[in-house]
């Protein structure tokens, strides 16, 4: 029998027994949907995190009061008891670090931005030293960034995200215009490139002001994050990080042998930690999907056994007309593989739909990986073939004389 004819018979069988076909395919559809949805969401999250941290560059590390990733409430409570990282700490490290190519600091809070009768709420207000935008690879699309003079004189100038431009200056060039940041007037000197949204939260609803100006309004005795550029990754980065660690421990009077009273985070470490988490999550989800796939395969095997029983006389006629056992075996394997592959197609579509719905509703990033689509289809077809071997072999070994006597 030709391959095309065997596929045609399989599809006709599916169409002739619609309810049975739906129940047969359900396990495969659920399994493939799970695989595609999980891989799509994990791939989206990994892409986002990698992009977020790599934006700072592989040669940039941070010093802060608390780590950027906290895994328990106990850790949060312990880190909260640490002393704040203050502006004086930043100045001390800046003056004494010999291996640091560039350095900046940032503080942030959430506030209200007003222009005339219009306002934007829940805006992130960032206090930047003048080098910070370049350390974060933040591109200024219009206007300019901060200068050292802006920082020294605590100038009331600011850089805005595109959300501020869209909401407060529709159709108007905001450069040179004035806005009020928590009641303080600032003149707009730059507009950042659009960064989009992640996890349902816009990344463009922010205003950056010189750190010295920021501290005049919000105080100096609040923790900040220090960004350090080493100039190169690898040993150069490690040497710079070690020097900064020694300076910070000396500045904060950490006792010999005692743990650091601050956190020094490297981007590669953070990305690696997140990869470990997502890989573990993917492994667990993959295991559950595999169980669903096995259940679907058992259902396919059961239905194929029923099909062999129903078509015993047909098998006998084919053998009487010259079909070899190998032909019968291949026919039923193609049928079981086709049934599973149809379930795989529905599963791929369902997985993409589920992932996109989660992205729309929860803002969780997703990114469709072609390899996951191919993997889902291969898994489905492989399941159909594997669990179709026993029914196909049973059909191939039927005695044609006994088969022709069947009702």
Would you kindly provide a written description of the structure presented here, covering whatever features stand out?
The chain is of the alpha+beta class. The protein folds into two domains: 3-51 and 272-405, no CATH class; 56-270, no CATH class. It has 14 helices and twelve strands. The protein has helices at 3-16, 18-54, 73-80, 87-96, 132-135, 148-152, 162-168, 211-218, 235-252, 267-310, 312-320, 325-362, 370-396, 400-405, and strands spanning 60-64, 102-115, 118-128, 140-143, 157-160, 178-181, 184-192, 197-198, 201-202, 206-210, 225-229, 263-266. The strands form two sheets. A six-stranded mixed barrel has the order 2-3-10-5-7-6. β6 and β7 form a beta hairpin. α2 packs antiparallel against α13 (370-396). The radius of gyration is 32 Å and the shape is elongated. The model has no long low-confidence stretch (mean pLDDT 84). Pfam families: FtsX, MacB_PCD. It is found in: Cell membrane. It comes from Edaphobacter acidisoli. This is ABC transporter ATP-binding protein. The chain crosses the membrane at residues 21-42, 281-308, 329-362, 368-390.
Structural class: alpha+beta
Strand ordering within the main sheet = 2-3-10-5-7-6
Global outline: elongated
Tally of discrete structural domains: 2
Helix percentage: 55-70%
Strand content: 15-25%
The chain-level mean pLDDT equals 84
């Amino acid at each position: 029998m030709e391959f095309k004819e065997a596929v045609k018979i399989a599809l006709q069988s599916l169409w002739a027994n619609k309810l049975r076909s739906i129940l047969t395919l359900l396990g495969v559809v659920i399994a493939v949907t799970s695989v595609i949805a999980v891989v799509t969401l994990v791939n989206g999250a990994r892409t986002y995190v990698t992009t977020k941290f790599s934006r700072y560059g592989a040669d940039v590390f941070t010093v802060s009061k608390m780590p950027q990733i906290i895994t328990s409430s106990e850790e949060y409570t312990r880190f909260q008891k640490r002393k704040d990282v203050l502006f004086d700490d930043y100045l001390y490290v800046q003056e004494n670090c010999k291996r640091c190519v560039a350095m900046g600091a940032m503080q942030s809070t959430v506030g209200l931005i007003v222009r005339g009768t219009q306002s934007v709420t829940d805006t992130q207000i960032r206090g930047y030293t003048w080098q910070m935008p370049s350390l974060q690879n933040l591109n200024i699309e219009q206007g300019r960034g901060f200068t050292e003079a802006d920082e020294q004189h605590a100038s009331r100038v600011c850089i805005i995200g595109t959300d501020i431009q869209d909401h407060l200056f529709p159709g108007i060039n905001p450069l040179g215009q004035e806005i009020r940041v928590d009641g303080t007037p600032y003149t707009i000197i730059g507009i950042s490139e659009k960064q989009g949204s992640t996890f349902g939260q816009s990344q463009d609803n922010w205003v950056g002001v010189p750190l010295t100006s920021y501290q005049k309004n919000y105080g100096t005795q609040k923790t900040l994050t220090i960004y350090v550029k080493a100039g190169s990754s690898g040993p150069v980065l490690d040497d710079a990080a070690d020097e900064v660690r020694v300076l910070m421990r000396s500045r904060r009077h950490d006792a010999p042998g005692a743990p650091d009273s601050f956190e020094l985070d490297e981007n590669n470490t953070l990305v690696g930690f997140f990869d470990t988490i997502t890989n573990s999550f993917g492994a667990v989800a993959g295991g559950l999907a595999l169980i669903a796939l096995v259940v679907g395969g058992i259902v396919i095997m059961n239905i194929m056994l029923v099909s062999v029983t129903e078509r015993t006389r047909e098998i006998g006629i084919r053998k009487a007309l010259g079909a070899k056992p190998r032909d019968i075996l291949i026919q039923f394997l193609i049928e079981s593989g086709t049934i599973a592959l149809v379930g795989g197609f529905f599963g791929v579509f369902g997985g993409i739909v589920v992932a996109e719905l989660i992205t729309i509703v929860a803002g969780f990033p997703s990114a469709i990986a072609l390899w996951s689509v191919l993997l889902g289809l291969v898994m489905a077809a492989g399941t159909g073939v594997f669990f179709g071997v026993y029914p196909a072999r049973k059909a191939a070994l039927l005695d044609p004389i006994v088969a022709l006597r069947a009702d």
